[in-house]
Amino acid sequence: MLFHDLTRPGTDEIKVSDDSLLEIEHVTMRFGGLVAIDDLSFTARKKEITALIGPNGAGKTTVFNCITGFYKPTVGRVMLTHPRKGRYYLERMEGFKIAQQADVARTFQNIRLFPRMSVLENLIVAQHNALMKASAFSFAGLLFMNRYAKAEKEAVERAKYWLNKVGLYDRADWDAGNLPYGDQRRLEICRAMCIQPAVLCLDEPAAGLNPRESLELNELLLGIRDHEGVGILLIEHDMSVVMQISDHVVVLDHGRKISDGTPEFVRNDPTVIKAYLGESEDEDLPQTVKNDLARNAGKDV
Ligand SMILES: Nc1ncnc2c1ncn2[C@@H]1O[C@H](COP(=O)(O)OP(=O)(O)OP(=O)(O)O)[C@@H](O)[C@H]1O
């Protein structure tokens, strides 16, 4: 496969496997004296769900912020091999271009819908880049006036497609803020999918969901992987989600990678168990407490 650097010409060609989607290479992020990420490297592959897990403060959101342009890594490289467009060096791009040109989509820990806009409007607004390009506010749009009508029709069709997928079609005209919490979470994922992303980065999508909503989330994410062919990078504390749907799990602790492999490998890795349970996998803890802790770490007991 041929790659070209779309952000800076003349960069040396680097060997990357064909199925690589995101390559995090020796990334370090410092905030003054605090090292939030410490020499982190891992690969997220195309058409896979990669989960980034770790105890609170491990550096997971900081990794997302480095990928999506909210932070520039102090050291290291973040490469995206876009399935349709070629390679991007994200750490060199202006933040807004990472979404606009490299098609990196993201959701946040807290819901960030426009609550007073309708469900459908939230999905149309997400597609404003494509609509602006086709509008009379762009040169190309002026030359081809019918382009806007076509782009608008496509945006509405795409929105309807996703609303149908998650069973929100009949509530398209509701204010987004009036949807139940679990539906709002899924609407956020639909909104991210409406930009036809190269990679979908989800920060704790299962937070606050009940078990039924978690199952629906699992189905939605597996569908995005299997039917849309979009790679997902997922931060998640809910191990029932992580262990059931991930192809690949990367574990962070204090900014360092401590494990990397299949869910099966990671859940049995003693280093991971120690990071979650602490040094003393205590003899003196009651068995029920040990079981609860192990279950939270995604380990069968
Ligand atoms: N902008 C910032 N300035 C200073 N320190 C920061 C900043 N952002 C993150 N940190 C610190 O970096 C460390 C990692 O934080 P981060 O939010 O990435 O962890 P996390 O694994 O996502 O945690 P959680 O699971 O609780 O969301 C923490 O010590 C945090 O306080």
From TrEMBL:
Keywords linked to the UniProt accession: Amino-acid transport, ATP-binding, Nucleotide-binding, Transport
A UniProt-annotated Pfam family: ABC_tran
GO biological process: D-alanine transmembrane transport; L-alanine transport; L-isoleucine import across plasma membrane; L-valine import across plasma membrane
Superkingdom of this protein's organism: Bacteria
GO molecular function, one term: L-phenylalanine transmembrane transporter activity
CDD domains, alphabetized: ABC_Mj1267_LivG_branched
InterPro entries: AAA+_ATPase, ABC_AA/LPS_Transport, ABC_transporter-like_ATP-bd, BCA_ABC_TP_C, P-loop_NTPase
Residue span(s) of domain ABC transporter: 22-279
Annotated Gene Ontology cellular component terms: plasma membrane
Family of this protein: Belongs to the ABC transporter superfamily.
Entry protein name: Branched-chain amino acid transport system ATP-binding protein
UniProt source species: Novispirillum itersonii
Organism ancestry: Bacteria, Pseudomonadati, Pseudomonadota, Alphaproteobacteria, Rhodospirillales
